[in-house]
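Sat 14:20. Reprocessing the chain from the morning session after the first attempt stalled halfway. Input below, unchanged.
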Amino acid sequence: MEKRSKKSRNACAKRRNVAEKWVIKITVFTFVGAVICSFVSQLTTSRSDITVSVMLLAFMLLISIIFDGIGLSVASCTPEKLEKYAHYKKQYAIALRLVANAEKVNNVCADVVGDMCGILSGACGASIVLQLCQSGQFSHWTAIIVSSIIAAVTVGGKASLKKIAVKNSEELVFMSARIISIFITDRKRRK
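Finished this time. Tokens:
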């Protein structure tokens, strides 16, 4: 009985250690990613006209919405739902791995990528307001309207995709696995 209890405590301690390492890794990764993205965003928006800033803003919003949907679809999918894709060996294996690691995938997609793009889209919005201010087309309402549009598009886009992500979770997970499979080479091909 005592042996079992000791094994159980060791297993719990091991799981807690793995979880703590994940938190540290993802925090450092997010910090480095945010620094790089902020630098590129700042460089791009500060040296470009308003059209490029609006395009960058639209891209950030789109990425934020898509990755939030992917994160939710992975979290709401089960391996049983993916069985209809079993004949696609490589993609099916990737999809199963995504679902098995749903907590981490959701964290990366929804929190890291989604929130990072959300924050950067706010910075792009500020840059657009600043550019409008410098061109003389600025009133105090401009900042309010730009930030409200960004918030409405982000929340509305994520809300509309969430319904799709939950209803069609296996399709979104498998589509994500197909995209990931493009970047993963087979070990057999390398040999």
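The mean pLDDT is 82.
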